[in-house]
Input
Amino acid sequence: MTTHPKKIVIAGGGTAGWIAAAALARKMGPLVNVSLIESETIGTIGVGEATIPPLRTFHKLLQIDEQAFMRATAATFKLGIQFENWGHVGEKYIHSFGVTGQQSWLAEFVHFYLSAKARGLESEYGDYCFELEAAKQHKFATSPQSNIQYAYHLDAGDYVEFLKRFCSSLGVTRTEGVIDRVAQHDNGDIQALHLKSGEVIEGDFFIDCTGFKGLLIEDTLNTGFEDWSQWLMCDSACAVQTSAVGPAVPYTRSAAHHAGWQWEIPLQHRVGNGLVYSSKYMSDEEAERTLLKNVKGEPLTTPRTLRFQTGRRKKAWNRNCLALGLASGFVEPLESTSIHLVIMGITRFMQLFPHSGHDQALINEYNEQTQLELERIRDFIILHYHVTEREDSPFWKHCKDMDVPESLAERITLFKEQAHAFQKQNELFRVDSWTQVMLGQGVTPTSYHPAATMLSDTQLMQSMRQQRERVTNAVSQLPTHESFIQRYCAMDAGKVATAS
Output
């Protein structure tokens, strides 16, 4: 390949495949021909229904209408995640998407908050975050002038169908079929995909969206896998959909149990539920019983058990093949990063497009950026398990006592001793995210920036009161989440009736 790849073949559909197809066709359509191979006989995982705010940026890039997307996918709004029983049993906190408090160039808001707490302030850290307070009160509204930070809960299957329709007008070719064999050139690059039907799909570049199997990136190219299960012990999930028993709230619930945690994701017409667990500490039978016991509505589907392994491919881009989604690796869905990683993967590929053919330096740069991004997300997920005071089960005792990656250990120490939380270059999770989780799970810094002591008691308390009042007043003017959805993006009534 001495010129840029003109025919790009996507192996596998699902969310990863169709996001890649949509992005390439919309943004690089005149340069490339995009084809996708999928089989209706091969199911997709499709249980992840929570997202994070960068999805909105991606949709704007593709010129996707928000209201049309939300109606088509039964979507609701998401302002954050409510974590229950993670630090101590019976305690809860919200990790929101918003900025907390008034920012200062010299020191983050948390330093002033800790100084005020030392002087008798009784309010909570989250009281100074607009998105967090709106989530607690089940309120929401947005407009073109709004700067509220939010994401979505969506029906994963409907999202795929929405993307398929979106791609149909962009020239994406879909082939129905099961891949039987992968043919390679003499130099090891992938040449073509042979289907069981006998059809042969040739291409210049291939994108592997075949899930955990990694048919191209692993079975064919033997890329290798880096296992992270020594830190992230959960390797199983049991999922079920249930009827809604009340208005949808604008946040995801994550409730820890003795061997993992359970999610609850409210859509317009139903609720997505799942129990994530370590098979070392919980059997599949116990997981299903626990899940069905804890859900609030009537089950609409049969519980489905999934197996996974946390970790990453040693190369996301190998030769003329790029792995996306589960084929590239997996970080459990605790912070709803799966769709985001697909978007970043295909966006990074388009930015580092091999326009002059094979360039190993370009591939190395892509893989280095991808590795750094994944490792920082991995560390943030491990943080939730490690900074716990729970010792009520072998699972939690192990999480509390385990050695963590040095990169994470340093960040925890910085916060414990200095109240410093950082967002490194190109890192997904911001200072506010690290701070909310650590404070929420009981990590209390022993000191804070001396700049926070320069204000008098009166000045500091007045500032804190004013900041809290601004949040309180702004939230009080919002409609309820449910009423805003009904006015802005209510799904077709027929679909609601079908779901119920």
Summary: The chain has a mean pLDDT of 95. The longest strand covers residues 236-242. The chain has 15 helices and 21 strands. Residues 109 and 276 are 34 Å apart (CA to CA).
